[in-house]
Write a structure and sequence with these properties.
single chain; about 750 residues; mainly beta; Immunoglobulin-like; 24-stranded antiparallel barrel; about 55% strand; globular
């Protein structure tokens, strides 16, 4: 018998003898050998939730849980015989863990309002996130600890979550009611087990968690995060005299008690140490960019405000952006405070930018009030932006509701009001604005069983409604109806190669406030997961003819023909050292003829700590309709679009990360004709010629990260970006890449240290 198996049997025996607990120090080393574990709470009744059969777990899983003055300690004992492949890959902090893993989710107040996710991979990769209402955010970061170990038939994880990891209410009577959910993923077999029997797709997911009572621990902390950074611009023509800059600042996190947290920042460092994904956008709609700056991701769960249509009430990438040049603006100071109590949550968020030359920087504010009354949650949000450079003030107020009517029915919605005031000046094109308007939405979710899930959604955005000063919305001036029906099949015969599948039908209708139909559409999706962990997905959709009132940038409405789309996606077995996914798709691009595209994304796990990934795609446009800004008209192109990327990830240790990332987008477009619109909104050949074009955009970054301690890191980053454009239209992929790579627009070196005291 192995030493680890003997240790496991000894622990089980001791637990039955009820040895009194002596809460001494527990070393987080992935080995559950301290005496305290023998008298921990024990949970063993795991069931299968992926697929969602609720059958007893295929492999035994045991969770042991201890709470004391130092926090919550959790130990997983995962039975996985040598015959079952373990996927022990290491990943960066907060990256998706494509391997075996343990998940702890905790609702510290037991109210089914806000919860936190702590995920540990079998190679001790860590990821955390927060969830509340109908939103889920990977941006949240907390200070917690873990370690893993393994032997022939088991692997173990040991986790310590301090009481100060997140704000929580103070009951006042010394007893704290919490709720927990544990799950375990066997990656190579596409299986997930959970205790208790709860799952994300159910309306009652948080309500179904296991309730526990623990002794209330009053804790307070004061953490200081000074930083020092050095940046050198290598692209001003002469590298030897390139500009360089030292910056320093301070973040402070103060938790005077368990339910209050104040985060302050003086001269915070918002320099990018992680590059954004490369996007070339020819549409009339803005590209959403995820937030990566620490101040806007840490302790941000209360302010999360994603709408069902992917708009966002608080979009922090607006902050630190110059409204005149689109460049970056430094921040003078920033602060946010959150307060959590039973049935009441409060938050306030403030940022002040530095002055820009002779112009004053902007000021931003957001507040949040949220209360719960039995199964009904009501809240209020406010965002305010003041940009003196363009003499503009904008405020948005929101009333929101989340009602869990029954276990099967959930209703949530919001009413939004915007007020924008702008005085004409030279920086805003002498534009005078005094606009007020409303928006609102209501969503009904009905899930009578694990087999069926149905949603209905209606929304209205007024003509003058605008939340883009501190939020994100694709457009205003529309009324929308959306519906979806999903049917899950979670159980197949033993001889079947299929593990699970689902069919989903989505449909919708959208019109602008003048009553013009924009979209009447339907989409069918089928996904099938095999026992081998292969996955296939099929999409088919259509949209009726209608009006596009945005493509001409306010130069008339285009009457587009019916549109069609479809795709087939295949994912190879995910536990293999070599895996890939490939996608074939077709769609219209504004006219009658279809385009076709092919995407291939391989990934090689050279070792458990070294990963190579790539992606290449090609799209052929027969007729691509876009707006030609130079000729101020629509134009149709025959085009070739190329995308390529390469990524190298190496994790020499749990504390170190080396990342190399390259992205490239290239387009050759040959004009077919330029067009104006006739009185019926149809394309009419224009006497003004539109021209061919070629563009190429590249982004490259090498990043080294060394973790000194949780939330304390050293970064060394080299970044390089290039761009190329011409009127050729037929450069070819080789020339496009070479020219895009050599046409350097951005090149910099950044060194940064941030340490938590």
């Amino acid at each position: 018998m192995s030493k680890a198996n003997y240790r496991y049997l000894l622990l089980v025996s001791l637990s039955y003898l009820m040895v009194p607990a002596v809460y001494g120090a527990i070393t987080i080393d992935g080995v559950l050998d301290e005496p305290e574990w023998a008298n921990a709470r024990v949970y063993t009744d795991f069931v299968t939730v992926e697929p969602l059969t609720s059958d007893p777990a295929k492999y035994a899983t045991e969770v042991r849980m201890i709470t004391n003055k130092e926090g919550i300690f959790i130990g997983f004992i995962n039975y996985q015989p040598a015959s079952v492949k373990r996927v022990n890959r290491r990943f960066a902090r907060d990256a998706e863990i494509n391997g075996d893993r343990n998940v702890v989710m905790i609702d510290f107040d037991g109210t089914a309002e806000t919860a936190y996710d702590f995920t540990v991979g079998s190679a001790n990769s860590r990821r955390d996130s927060s969830m509340g209402g109908s939103t889920y955010s990977n941006d949240w970061d907390g200070t917690w600890y873990s370690q893993t170990s393994s032997d022939a038939d088991y692997w173990y994880s040991e986790i310590h979550i301090p009481w100060t990891v997140a704000p929580m209410s103070d009951t006042g009577d010394g007893i704290k009611n919490m709720a927990v959910w544990f799950s375990r993923v066997v990656f190579n077999e596409s299986l997930r087990f959970a205790f208790p029997n709860a799952y994300y797709t159910r309306n009652t997911f948080l309500e179904d968690w296991h309730s526990i009572e623990v002794e209330q621990v009053k804790a307070s902390t004061l953490d200081w995060f000074p930083y020092l950074s050095y940046s050198k611009d290598l692209n001003n023509g002469v590298a030897e005299s390139a500009a360089s800059d030292f910056n320093g600042g301070l973040d402070v996190v103060w938790r005077p008690n368990s339910n209050t947290q104040l985060t302050g920042a003086i001269k915070p460092d918002f320099g990018q140490v992680e590059s954004d994904d490369l996007v070339v956008n020819f549409t009339a709609f803005e590209t959403y960019v995820a937030e990566k700056r620490p101040f806007f991701t840490e302790n941000q769960s209360l302010f999360a405000s994603l709408l069902p249509n992917e708009d966002n009430i608080l979009y922090t990438r607006r902050i630190g952006s110059d409204p005149l040049s689109g460049g970056l603006v430094d921040i003078n100071a920033a602060a946010k405070i959150t307060y959590f109590d039973e049935g009441l949550n409060l938050g306030l968020f403030m940022v002040s930018e530095e002055n820009i030359g002779d112009s004053q920087g902007g000021d931003f504010l957001s507040s949040r009030i949220q209360g719960k009354f039995n199964n009904l949650s009501l809240g209020h949000r406010l965002t305010y932006a003041d940009r003196p450079a363009i003499d503009r003030e904008a405020m948005v107020q929101v009333i929101d509701m989340d009602w869990r009517k029954t276990d099967e029915v959930r209703i949530n919605g919001q009413v939004l009001f915007s007020d924008v005031q702008q005085q004409a000046n030279i920086n805003n094109g002498q534009s005078d604005i005094d606009d007020q308007d409303y928006a609102g939405w209501l969503k009904l979710s009905y899930s009578p069983s694990d087999t069926w899930l149905q949603e209905l959604y209606v929304s209205h955005y007024g003509d003058q409604f605008d939340m883009n000063d501190l939020g994100f919305m694709k457009r205003n001036d529309f009324n929308e109806f959306y519906g979806s029906t999903r049917y899950n099949i979670s159980s197949y015969k033993p001889e079947s190669a299929t593990l699970s599948s689902y069919n989903k039908l989505e449909y919708g209708y959208t019109e602008n406030n003048d009553g013009d139909r924009l979209w009447l559409w339907a989409d069918f999706e089928h996904e099938r997961v095999f026992k081998s962990s292969r996955k296939v997905s099929l999409h088919l959709g259509l949209k009726s003819s209608g009006w596009d009132d945005r493509i001409t940038r306010s130069n008339g409405d285009y009457a587009h023909p019916a549109q069609y789309w479809g795709s087939f996606l295949y994912l190879s077995p995910r536990g293999n050292d070599y895996s890939y996914k490939t996608k074939i798709s077709f769609e219209n691009d504004g006219t009658d003829k279809l385009s076709a595209s092919l995407k291939f994304m391989p990934k090689i796990y050279l070792t458990e700590t070294v990963t190579l990934g790539a992606g290449i795609s090609y799209k052929y446009y027969q007729e691509w309709l876009i707006w030609d800004f130079s000729a101020e008209q629509l134009a149709v192109y025959e085009a070739d679009s190329y995308e390529g990327g390469f990524r190298f990830d190496w994790y020499p240790s749990n504390r170190q990360e080396v990342r190399l990332k390259l992205q490239w987008v290239g387009i050759d477009a040959r004009v077919i004709d330029g067009y104006q619109l006739d009185s019926a909104g149809k394309l009419l050949s224009s006497a003004t010629p539109s021209s061919d074009f070629s563009v190429s955009d590249t982004a490259f970054q090498i990043r080294y990260r060394y973790q000194l301690a949780p939330l304390s890191d050293i970064f060394l980053v080299y970044s390089r970006g290039g761009y190329y454009g011409s009127d050729d239209g037929d450069e070819g992929p080789g020339t496009l890449f070479d020219e895009g790579w050599s046409g350097v627009r951005v090149e910099s070196l950044i060194a940064k240290i941030r340490y938590r005291f």
